[in-house]
Amino acid sequence: MNRQSLRSSLENYRTPFEEEASFKKDFIDLTFDDLAFVRERLAGHFTGSAWIVNKRRTHTLLTLHRKLNRWLQLGGHADGNENLLEVAMNEAREESGLTSLRFVDSGIFDIDRHVIPAKGDVPEHFHYDVRFLIEAEMNEPLVISEESHDLAWIPFDSVQDLVGSNASILRMLEKTSKSEILL
């Protein structure tokens, strides 16, 4: 997936979620910016994330993010890589130690634009996060990276207790529950 195929995927992306639909055009517009895939674009830039689930669709792997101190999906900055699926897979491997990661389908699973607070000399900015549905084996040992305080497989029915009102996580959870019916 390069910049052009990302743009095409975003143009064809459909969601029943109003919030997601409201910023879809911003994602498409960003693909025309030469700096869209580097963190030096201080107004905001693309990131890639993995919504990791087990094959039975009963658990998701979340990380307690060291800088944000919140439970989140695994992912990170593109750092110049225009293939956001590759970014998501690499970040998932680096942040979990998992080798059983498998991309579930060929499309974008979710998109989210969220504010990242200022830290040091980096001002507050947006992450334009493109997310992919990834499966992994739960019995594989987890390796907590320096980017995390913790890493855990969370049962679907406990996710909301952990993430509170994080709408984007709850949206991915809802999508996963709906996709379970389609499997």
Automatic annotation (TrEMBL):
Single GO molecular function: hydrolase activity
PROSITE patterns referenced in this protein's UniProt entry, alphabetically: NUDIX
Residue ranges occupied by any Nudix hydrolase domain in the UniProt entry: 43-176
Domain of life: Bacteria
One of the Pfam families matching this protein, by short name: NUDIX
Record-linked InterPro entries: NUDIX_hydrolase-like_dom_sf (IPR015797), NUDIX_hydrolase_dom (IPR000086)
Signal sequence coordinates: none
Keywords for this protein: Hydrolase
Name of the molecule in the record: NUDIX hydrolase
Native source organism of the sequence: Fontibacter flavus
